């Protein structure tokens, strides 16, 4: 576990598409522990002494949000003793911040309007003889990307539908070697991704007018002063895009730690999309202990007299000793 700075600010940022499940609790607990383990703040006390743990409701993808899920998630966290040190914020109320960031990117010539549909992108790949990977998205072929003079021949008179961010594609851009962006994860170690060939210019504002996850999360992490991001390993491949956005917007890059995933019997990651069961909180101590074990923390077995505070205190001590 790498050294933490004098003040650690972390966050848990669930999407209100349903109740928390076992995998969600692992991520929430890990982010909470990462803050609480710094400075020896006791569970239940204010985190201001050594750090601050925040909760952000990521509800920009409104078609997927379930009414009342945000309140349910907050109540589930409270039942587990995971209380934020400041009132939660909702991304749906922060559109002005995202628009200001997009305006900055446009002014810098880094973001551009795109008229391509998914079918257009698929046809471009078909013409080029490329096929979509079994797991993954088609890399944007750059159809609408402006040339060196700012001309967008690819629009062909069409009205832009979405906004995309240019990724580095030449020697000297990005980090390390051309378009390769390198970073180090506190658990996974050195990581690298060629943004141009793995991702391509990516969407920061969607064709339906909604803000893309990548832009919203970067803007919010900076606005909230997040220093340490702890989240599920399935989000690790988003990190290079977010670091690139941070550089384009001249924002600080937090430290990243991606936690192990909780998988179902079929080996797939537990998620709301594949029908993961809601978190069973009839015994919060048992749920927390199981989540801690996924994180590699060996906690004592719970008894009838064990409290949530007991489990959290044991987990903080175990996290500190990693």
From TrEMBL:
Superkingdom of the organism of origin: Bacteria
EC number per UniProt: 6.1.1.-
PANTHER family: GLUTAMATE--TRNA LIGASE, GLUTAMYL-Q TRNA(ASP) SYNTHETASE
Annotated Gene Ontology cellular component terms: cytosol
A GO term, aspect molecular function: zinc ion binding
Placement of sequence motif 'HIGH' region: 14-24
HAMAP family per UniProt: Glu_Q_tRNA_synth
Binding site for ATP: 272
Lineage, top ranks: Bacteria, Pseudomonadati, Pseudomonadota, Betaproteobacteria, Burkholderiales
Sequence positions that bind Zn(2+): 114, 116, 140, 144
Nucleotide-binding among keywords: yes
Binding site for L-glutamate: 11-15, 58, 213, 231
Similarity comment: family membership: Belongs to the class-I aminoacyl-tRNA synthetase family. GluQ subfamily.
Protein name: Glutamyl-Q tRNA(Asp) synthetase
UniProt organism field: Aquabacterium commune
Record's function text: Catalyzes the tRNA-independent activation of glutamate in presence of ATP and the subsequent transfer of glutamate onto a tRNA(Asp). Glutamate is transferred on the 2-amino-5-(4,5-dihydroxy-2-cyclopenten-1-yl) moiety of the queuosine in the wobble position of the QUC anticodon.
